[in-house]
Design a protein that fits this description.
Blueprint lengths: L5 H9 L1 H9 L9 H19 L11 H8 L4 E13 L2 E5 L8 E11 L2 E8 L10 H13 L5 E8 L4 E8 L3 H6 L2 H13 L25
Parallel strand pairs: 4-5
Antiparallel strand pairs: 1-2, 1-3, 3-4, 5-6
Helix pairs in contact: 1-2
């Protein structure tokens, strides 16, 4: 089975045909949107501030309060941490992000480790937290427990830097397998699609933004 991430699995759930073109045969590339580019820029600014102490540009001054609060948390700070996990008969083991046997990949925006406790922060640039989804935090927490066996507890949060909202969730090492296991139903459906070669298109409100322009459901916005 192809290695998965939270975002790639969401793409499959949204539309198997889109997943097929973007992830399997790769004949289409998602160029992203203005919002995507904006989000990437905010992530870069946050990383440079936390990691290198680079001053936040004036145009992004609104995130200073959030970053200052995070920077004051004691512990080793790891920015844009790439995590790879392999699934074995005995459970899960840490591997390189690009390892041949990698099963799951994830990138943690900011991790702060202090003894057996960590903070895991995912920056969000949406206008508000109305559609917050904490499942991504579950996967990253499981990956962190796998890579850092000394961790017992992780205080995770989606940090909405525009609205200054924090959606928090606490994770414990005893539930590591449960966190990964929650994705199994969707992964099983993905595996069926891979084995059968059937990637049915799903019509939805985002079809107008889909890069798979040859799909029968694609339409101009």
């Amino acid at each position: 089975m192809t290695a998965w991430s939270y975002s790639s699995l969401n793409t499959f759930k949204q539309c198997p045909k889109k997943y097929y073109h973007l992830r399997i045969i790769k004949d289409v590339k998602d160029q992203g949107s203005t919002a995507t580019v904006y989000g990437q820029e905010v992530h870069r600014v946050a990383e440079e501030f936390i990691r290198d102490g680079v001053q936040v540009p004036k145009k992004y001054a609104f995130i200073n309060g959030v970053l200052d609060a995070l920077n004051k948390i004691e512990g080793e700070k790891l920015c844009e941490l790439k995590l790879g996990v392999a699934k074995t008969e005995d459970g899960y083991e840490p591997v390189d992000f690009f390892a041949d046997n990698v099963w799951w990949r994830g990138i943690a925006d900011l991790v702060i480790i202090n003894g057996d406790t960590a903070h895991s922060i995912d920056y969000k640039t949406s206008k508000n937290a109305k559609y917050a989804d904490t499942k991504q935090l579950d996967a990253v927490a499981a990956g962190l427990f796998t890579h850092f066996p000394e961790l017992k507890k992780i205080k995770s949060a989606l940090a909405f830097v525009v609205s200054k909202e924090f959606i928090q969730k606490e994770h414990v090492v005893e539930k590591k397998e449960e966190y990964f296991g929650a994705f199994e139903p969707d992964l099983e459906r993905l595996e069926v699609a891979q084995e059968s070669g059937v990637w049915n298109a799903i019509s939805g409100p985002l079809c107008g933004w889909c890069p798979v322009t040859k799909c029968e459901h694609n339409r101009k916005r």
